[in-house]
Design brief:
The chain is α/β, with parallel strands linked by helices. The chain has one domain: Rossmann fold (3-Layer(aba) Sandwich). The chain has helices at 12-24, 38-44, 61-70, 104-121; strands at residues 4-8, 28-32, 49-53, 79-83, 96-99. Helix 1 (12-24) links the parallel strand 1 and strand 2. The relative contact order is 0.19.
Length: 122
């Protein structure tokens, strides 16, 4: 199992903070800021873990997640959903959910745990 994360987040400061902490933990991090073509980006270079914001320009994280779960190639992709509004429940198809603001250590821990769980399944 590799250590590749795709981060789909449109807020540059948040994206850079996540990229920084995950890179320091040994992850290769690619980022993308638009929901409109996010599915194409994911298909072009499938990550080991996806970190997905809910509110994105072009297309919402909920819509992207629903499309991924309908695609057999990505039905088991670990997805950490981030939300600035907080979530009363886990969005359908999400592996984990994290409310903004979050602690950097929380993101690293969540990504590690999701990758480890997926590694045991493969």
């Amino acid at each position: 199992m590799g250590k590749n994360v795709l981060l789909i987040e449109d807020e540059p400061h948040i994206a850079e903070a996540i990229r920084y902490v995950l890179t320091r933990d040994g992850w290769q991090v690619a980022s993308h800021g638009d929901g409109g073509d996010a599915i194409e980006v994911i298909r072009r270079s499938p990550p080991d873990v996806l970190v997905l914001d809910v509110m994105l320009p072009g297309r919402s994280g909920h819509e992207i997640l629903a499309d991924l779960r309908r695609d057999p190639a990505f039905s088991d992709l670990p997805v950490l959903v981030l939300s600035a509004r907080g979530l009363q429940h886990m969005p359908e198809g999400a592996t984990r959910v994290m409310a903004k603001p979050f602690a950097n250590a929380e993101v690293v821990s969540a990504v590690r745990a999701m990758a480890d769980a997926r590694g045991r399944l493969e």
